[in-house]
């Protein structure tokens, strides 16, 4: 059985191309760590890298019948990873800009009522929360608390599952908000 320079056996690859899910799962197991490290060159947030790796293998499975073998399987996966990371990067930049604008709008609307001291505390709290959250979580924080979007709308807008968004709020975002609130009050 011949192997390419990534250690990928031709028989495994051929079986996966023909739709053998077990063979594809073996390819995923062989290449997952390499693709994770590769995505780390483009995405610095661990959750974003995990999302990217998942998307790479979803796309690889979808487009595997189109794999022509003109390059190694590992190279082909890296090409997919570049595209996935670019998509995520563009998405995060757009959402980050929206979050910043939303947070600024929130601070501006709050600033019309409370004292200057309260306004400053509010700004500092928002900044503290944003600093502690990763890009995606900060985006969700801004969309929910700044723009008033529901978690379901956030999931739809960001292309995530509703349960995934609810889980991120429960496990990551809300604990950070509570910790910052305790630190400031």
Labels describing this entry:
about 180 residues, mainly alpha, Arc Repressor Mutant, subunit A, 8 helices, about 80% helix
Offer a quick outline of the entry:
The protein has about 180 residues and is mainly α. Helix content is about 80%, strand content about 0%. The chain has helices at about 10-15, 20-40, 45-65, 75-110, 115-130, 135-145, 150-160, 160-185.
Model description:
With 185 residues, the protein is mainly alpha-helical. The protein has 2 domains: 10-88, RNA polymerase sigma factor, region 2, helix turn helix motif (Rna Polymerase Sigma Factor, Chain: A, Orthogonal Bundle), CATH 1.10.1740.10; 114-184, Arc Repressor Mutant, subunit A (Orthogonal Bundle). The chain has 8 helices and no strands. α1 packs across α2 and α2 (21-39) packs antiparallel against α3 (46-63). The chain is elongated.
Give the helix/strand class. Answer: mainly alpha
CATH class of the largest domain: Mainly Alpha
User: SSE string, helix = H, strand = E?
Assistant: HHHHHHHH
CATH superfamily of the largest domain: RNA polymerase sigma factor, region 2, helix turn helix motif
* Poorly predicted parts: 1-8
CATH topology of the largest domain, by name, is: Rna Polymerase Sigma Factor, Chain: A
SS element count, helices? 8
Q: Total strand count, please?
A: 0
Mean of all residue-level pLDDT scores: 77
Distance between the termini: 66 Å
- Judging by the overall fold, what is the CATH architecture of the largest domain? Orthogonal Bundle
- Quickly count the domains: 2
Main pleated-sheet profile: none
Radius of gyration: 21 Å
Provide the β-strand percentage band: under 5%
Label the overall shape. Answer: elongated
Helix content: over 70%
The oligomeric status of these chains comes to single chain
């Amino acid at each position: 059985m011949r192997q390419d320079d990534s250690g990928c056996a031709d028989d495994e690859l051929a079986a996966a191309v023909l739709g053998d899910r077990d063979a594809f799962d073996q390819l995923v197991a062989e290449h997952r760590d390499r693709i994770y490290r590769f995505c780390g060159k483009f995405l610095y947030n661990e959750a974003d890298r995990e999302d990217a790796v998942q998307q790479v293998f979803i796309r690889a499975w979808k487009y595997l019948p189109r794999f022509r073998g003109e390059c190694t399987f590992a190279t082909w996966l890296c090409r997919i990873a570049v595209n996935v990371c670019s998509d995520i990067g563009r998405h995060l930049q757009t959402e980050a800009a929206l979050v910043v604008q939303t947070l600024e709008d929130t601070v501006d609307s709050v600033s019309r009522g409370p004292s200057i001291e309260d306004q400053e505390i509010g700004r500092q709290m928002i900044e503290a929360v944003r600093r502690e959250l990763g890009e995606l979580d900060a985006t969700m924080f801004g969309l929910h608390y700044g723009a008033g979007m529901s978690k379901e709308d956030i999931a739809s807008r960001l292309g995530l599952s509703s349960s995934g968004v609810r889980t991120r709020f429960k496990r990551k975002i809300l604990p950070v908000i509570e910790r910052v609130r305790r630190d400031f009050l």
